[in-house]
Amino acid sequence: MSVRQTLLAAATASILAMAPASAQTLRYANQGDLKSLDPYTLNESTTHAHLGHVFEGLVARDKDLKIIPALAESWETPEPTRWRFHLRKGVKFHNGDPFTADDVVFSADRVRKKGSNLQTRIPTDAKVVKVDDHTVDFILTSPNPILNSQWDTWYIMDKKWAEANNSVDPTPAAATTPSFASLNANGTGPFTVESHQPGVKTVYKANPNWWRKPEHNLKEIVFTPIGSDATRVAALLSGEVDVIEPVPIQDITRVDSSPNAQVLKGPELRTIFLGMDQVRDELLYSNIKGKNPFKDIKVREAFFKAVDIELIKTRVMRGLSTPSPLMIAPQLFKLSGDFTRPKFDPDGAKKLLTEAGYPDGFEVTMDCPNDRYVNDAAICQAVVGMLARIGVKVTLLAQPKAQYFAKVLKPGGYQTSFYLLGWTPGTLDSHNVLFDIMGCRDDPKSARGEGNLGGYCNKKLDELTDKVLQESDMSKRDLLIKDAYAIGAKDFGYIPLHQQALAWGVSKKVKLTQRADNQVLLYWATKQD
Q1: Pairing of β 24-30 and β 218-225
Q2: Does the domain at residues 269-502 carry the CATH identifier 3.10.105.10?
Q3: What's the pTM value of the predicted model, to 2 decimals?
Q4: Residue 185 confidence (pLDDT) above 70
């Protein structure tokens, strides 16, 4: 069977899946808000999941994270630098507009525009060409065998709708005034947006005209952000909500012992890490003037060795984390076992600071979200205490993710000196980490390093990253990746912490698929009466 036949067969199997009967309302609560409905505002898993109920990509990922057809029913590569996608016919946007190649070309242009946080989805120099109404070519300047590996979260927008509603340009995360596209949505997906009140509530209604047979039995989803851990858990246990994410680690046993709810647990692919501004000549937030301490490798190494990762695992994460020596989960890179973390060594860290010219330490502000990752603010607070032991005074600025991301991401000007971030590679591949997070961001014409908030840069790593993208021999490719990670580790460019564990609270009336990318996708949910 050819690749195209295989893809068509997979699509047919999905379409034939029968929808369960007895439509229900499902109430979902997350610790963070859904600020914008514009699918290019924020490259963040929870936001992608929210918007994945409304929008669709040319491809999707199934319950096991395998790529499957979506708005493109099949594709091929007639030559190494050209991909051809055959679009699904008969698909309509929620307002009735037909889905065509014009929407794909428009979305490819829009996602690469200034203000988009998803610019790396498509190479900046790629040409997107309409062949006919249902065929699109992506013409590249060099081979890219994983071109579509992130396209499950590159959602296709309606060109006609966007033009009619002054939404041709993406809404940046730092925008202070909402755009039409940030408050309204028009996708092709299984649910429509009935209402959206940022910070309050978003209501989705089942799309009766969805091209695919639904696997859910929901008539509507009601999403409510609940920042308080105690309130969120109480809402689940009382039956006020049906699904919460995350369950605080300290409440897992309590939820599991309740008569009407349970915790879905599993390993997550996200890596939590610390980063430092290594590009500015003077830090934005520090008492050191005229120079940047983080440009000194000894300072970066000192910070790394001052972090007691085992204490974070046992005290903060209560055992539900896997300390990591790399910026990627071991499930996603088979040679990760060849790396080990530098040992916790506060005395050695203090000595390194002295050698760098900071015998009494220095002051710096740390940016941290307080509603995005498991125990994010608590991790940051623990790091503050650890760095105090080597004389570094850290002022912690922990904020809700909307304000945090608006400040530290590219649209906000990378306004951070020291920060905590989490990253799941959208491709589930090391290239994404090496390009987006560890790549130099010094070329304004390239999307490389878009998620590199601290500006770490090593040109040798970039050269290896480019070779990784084009290498088809997997053994050779793994060795290139290993060499690249070795450079980053030697530079102490980042401080990887751990992979957190998944913990979703789910009513016993609800059946839900848990994916390792931590996207709560309710189009696979069923709820009993």
Answers
A1: parallel
A2: yes
A3: 0.86
A4: yes
